[in-house]
Write a structure and sequence with these properties.
Layout lengths: L4 E7 L6 H4 L10 H6 L9 H4 L5 E4 L11 H9 L3 E4 L4 H10 L3 E4 L8 E5 L4 E4 L3 E6 L3 H8 L3 H13 L1
Parallel strand pairs: 1-2, 2-3, 3-4
Antiparallel strand pairs: 1-5, 4-7, 5-6, 6-7
Helix pairs in contact: 4-5
Length: 165
């Protein structure tokens, strides 16, 4: 996990549900490139063509509401999104994001699409160029470690191999 995460903002509003993050018609595959190619298609059909590796989504309240599909954070991660910052997350999306290794932070920040932001997960802060620093909810250390290891499965493999040593 890179820290801080520096990237360009893609801004979305409240109640962004998993159906717009990755529409259900693409769930019959396990091909991550298909997920990436259709990320955010339900709200911005051109998003996957425009997003660049390292970009950051900033959203309002209840990001990731809807179904429990883990494909939603996978689609964002494989599209190149480095982090999602939102006022709040649907709990199942929050945990799925951590599980697949997609960093996120709950914070209410002021920014515009295209702004450069620096997300410091270790401090729980988001710095917005020309607008200041905003405090967010710092993730607990055990979740930060899980993200640093690449997600839940990678974390479990690492801890199991350490226990055997």
């Amino acid at each position: 996990m890179e820290n801080p995460i520096i990237g360009r903002v893609w801004k979305f509003g409240d109640d962004i549900d998993t159906d717009v993050i990755i529409p259900g018609k693409y769930l019959r595959t396990k091909d991550m490139q298909v997920f990436a190619a259709h990320a955010m298609e339900g709200i911005d059909p051109e998003f996957a063509k425009k997003v660049k590796p390292g970009d950051i989504i900033v959203a309002g309240s209840n990001f990731g509401c809807g179904s429990s599909r883990e494909q939603a954070p996978l689609a964002l991660k494989h599209a190149g999104v480095a982090c999602v910052v939102a006022k709040s997350f649907a709990r199942i999306f929050f945990r799925n994001a951590i599980n697949v290794g997609l960093p996120l932070m709950e914070a209410d920040i002021e920014c515009q699409e295209g702004d450069e932001v620096k997300v410091d997960l270790l401090k729980g802060e988001v710095m917005v160029s020309g607008k200041g620093t905003f405090r967010g909810n710092k993730l607990p250390d055990f979740l930060l470690q899980m993200l640093a290891d690449g997600g839940l499965v990678a974390h479990r493999k690492k801890t199991q191999s350490e226990q055997k040593a």
